[in-house]
UniProtKB/TrEMBL annotation:
UniProt keyword Cell membrane present: yes
Family statement drawn from the similarity comment of this UniProt entry: Belongs to the binding-protein-dependent transport system permease family.
Lineage per the UniProt record: Bacteria, Pseudomonadati, Pseudomonadota, Alphaproteobacteria, Hyphomicrobiales
Primary localisation category: membrane
InterPro entries from the UniProt entry: MetI-like, MetI-like_sf, UgpAE/MalFG_permease
Protein task: Part of the ABC transporter complex UgpBAEC involved in sn-glycerol-3-phosphate (G3P) import. Probably responsible for the translocation of the substrate across the membrane.
Record organism: Rhodopseudomonas rhenobacensis
Protein name, per record: sn-glycerol-3-phosphate transport system permease protein UgpA
Length: 293
């Protein structure tokens, strides 16, 4: 028998959702509409007057090769960060799901890094892999590797991906562990009785039952790589060297706040929002087909 909630006042449901609706309107839709309007304006260098230029900011932006380079760079960053963080998180979750002594402590320690702020995570990894001060960098030099993310763009990319993926592993681990614990043990025991080994049980039973969790985390991790890596990039490389770590969200900051080109920056933020919405729609349209519910 299903229980149904009855509201004695017709206004009560609206009052309950009003705070959430207000937060969404004030902190999402209003800034988004402001960005769209700002993208149609051209402001002078002193910020004293604005001129309506329609789609001129977009046309000028799409003629810049560096903007398309930033798009390619952002997609590459997103694939590397999402792929590495999801893979390591799934591995750790599978290991932590086993009946080990002190497993509760291990799980707690694996979740803690998520509480670290992005800028702090960036500074932490920068100290460890700084070419002259880092402990890990010293070990790389002892192995004959000339590690220098301050001058080498490829090294800087690796450094940012490591920090961003490490920051997100704990979040992914938490959901993977919950997904693993929700799988009925009877299903795994039946597969074992049928003669399936550990690896076969994982790929034929466990992994398909985790696909809803994996799909959700893919969407979340791509959004994280597009937006939330700003603090890490700003603290570690500032978009350098030679713009090798300048992603779309960081380019919005550089052109708008530092460059003073608010119209172009607003146009970039609108295009970034459209790209993320498009990617999310594509994932729901095609990737979700492979999800086993």
């Amino acid at each position: 028998m299903q229980k149904q909630s009855v509201f004695h006042s017709p206004l009560l449901p609206f009052l309950l959702i009003a705070p959430q609706v207000g937060i969404v309107l004030v902190f999402f839709y209003w800034p988004a509409l402001q960005a769209v309007w700002q993208s149609f304006l051209l402001q002078d260098a002193f910020g004293l007057s604005t001129t309506f230029v329609a789609f001129e900011n977009y046309a000028e932006l799409l003629q810049q090769p560096e903007y398309f380079n930033a798009i390619v760079r952002t997609f590459a960053f997103s694939a590397l960060i999402a792929g590495s963080s999801l893979s390591f998180a799934l591995l750790l979750a599978v290991m932590a799901d086993k009946p080990l002594r002190g497993v509760g402590l291990y799980r707690t320690l694996l979740i803690w890094p998520y509480a670290v702020a992005p800028a702090v995570a960036g500074v932490l990894w920068m100290f460890m892999l700084h070419p002259s001060l880092g402990v890990l960098a010293r070990g790389l030099r002892n192995m004959g590797l000339d590690w220098n993310p301050l001058l080498n763009g490829n090294h800087a990319v690796i450094l940012v991906v490591l920090a961003a993926a490490w920051k997100q592993i704990s979040y992914n681990f938490l959901f993977f562990l919950a997904g693993l614990q929700s799988i009925p043990k009877s299903v795994l025991e039946a597969a074992a009785i049928d003669g399936a080994g550990p690896m076969r049980r994982f790929w034929t039973v466990t992994f398909p039952l985790l696909t809803p969790t994996i799909f959700f985390l893919i969407v979340v991790n791509i959004v994280y790589a597009f937006f939330d890596t700003f603090g890490i990039i700003d603290a570690m490389t500032g978009g350098g060297p030679a713009k090798s770590t300048e992603t779309l969200v960081y380019k919005v900051y550089l052109d708008g706040l530092l460059g003073g080109n608010l119209g172009s920056s607003a146009a970039q933020s609108v295009l970034l929002m459209v790209i993320v919405i498009g990617l999310t729609a594509i994932q729901f349209r095609y990737v979700e087909r492979k999800v086993t519910y």
